[in-house]
Amino acid sequence: MCMYSAQNGLANDFHLTHLGQFALGGAGLIFTEATAVSPEGRISPEDLGLWTDEQIVPLGHITDFVHRYGGLIGVQLAHAGRKASTYAPWRGRGVVPAEAGGWPVIGPSDEAYNVFYPHPTALTVDDIRRVTADFAVAARRAQMAGFDVVEVHAAHGYLLHQFLSPLANARTDEYGGSFENRTRFLLEVVRAVRTAWPMHLPLFVRVSATDWAPGGWDLDQTVALANLLRFEGVDVLDVSSGGLTPVQQITPGPLYQTPFAARVRREVPDLLTMAVGMIDTPAQAEGILHEGAADLVALARAFLRDPHWPQRAAREFGLTPALPDVYARAGW
């Protein structure tokens, strides 16, 4: 969940407090918000970043805290592409102008997300290689910062997803057109990150299983992509959906995205899957695992509402929650 609370990509006391509370609350694995691999890759001027060595130590304070209290933490590496240089939701709408800290944006083609978003410049092949290298270098910085997991963000209409979907990718070179060409950039990024990131540490990839729009990326293509990613050293596919086009038609509801993860798990058994999306209660999460719909369950808004969600879940299942010594006197 993007917090839009950094300056120059640097983590600060807010991020330490925000992410640290989940370790105290018993989360098994915590993820940072989308963390930009380059300044141009930020969604907003206030996004976290890992494009410079200066950003390593502040994030290291957070990973140290999480580890001290028994948690694990991953970083989500991202590039917003044509959805970059936009305002945080409560600060405005659409393009951030240059005088307010905005910047030129890039994408697979020169089509904007919508009329309120910036007009992108299509990446050249050299640009694609540069961005690929940015992901790899950010992964090395993530290791130095002490992260346990890296996740490549290829969902929600950001740059790598833009290349995957025919609705955003109108290229006619080796990075556009066919399924093989549209997946090429993501696969190159994953290979570069896997080379930079230690083999003994997990690599996740987040995808949108469908664009929820005719002619876009869909679940069949997601399954085909999953079959490719399992040969690239990817350990977990984090299966979300949407975000690519403003014409998407979604009817959200409890567990509405879980069937996407379930199909990938069923058809690509060598690749672990993570279910996300309106999973609120412990019973819902336990049901996903019990039914074999996914191997892991991720929650976001539920944790914003209750950072101690795992401890409450343990109590609901008749277990004794694991509590940090400093909180044990509170009892359950």
Care to describe what's here?
Its cofactor is FMN. InterPro entries: Aldolase_TIM, OxRdtase_FMN_N, YqjM-like. Keywords: Flavoprotein, FMN, NADP, Oxidoreductase. 34% of the residues lie in helices and 12% in strands. The chain has 332 residues and is of the alpha/beta class. It has a single domain (13-330), classed as TIM Barrel (Alpha-Beta Barrel), CATH 3.20.20. It has a seven-stranded parallel beta sheet with strand order 1-2-5-6-7-8-9. Helix 1 runs parallel beside helix 2 (56-68), helix 3 runs parallel beside helix 6 and helix 7 (219-229) crosses helix 8. The two termini are 29 Å apart.
Précis, in short:
The protein is an alpha/beta fold and 332 residues long. It has eleven helices and nine strands.
Q: How many strands, what sense, and barrel or not for the largest sheet?
A: 7 strands, parallel
SSE-based structural type: alpha/beta
Predict the CATH topology: TIM Barrel
Q: How many separate helices? A: 11
Order of helices and strands: HEHEEEHEHHHEHEHEHEHH
The CATH architecture can be named as Alpha-Beta Barrel
User: What spatial order of strands do you see in the largest sheet?
Assistant: 1-2-5-6-7-8-9
Structurally, how many domains make up the residues? 1
Number of strands: 9
Global Rg? 19 Å
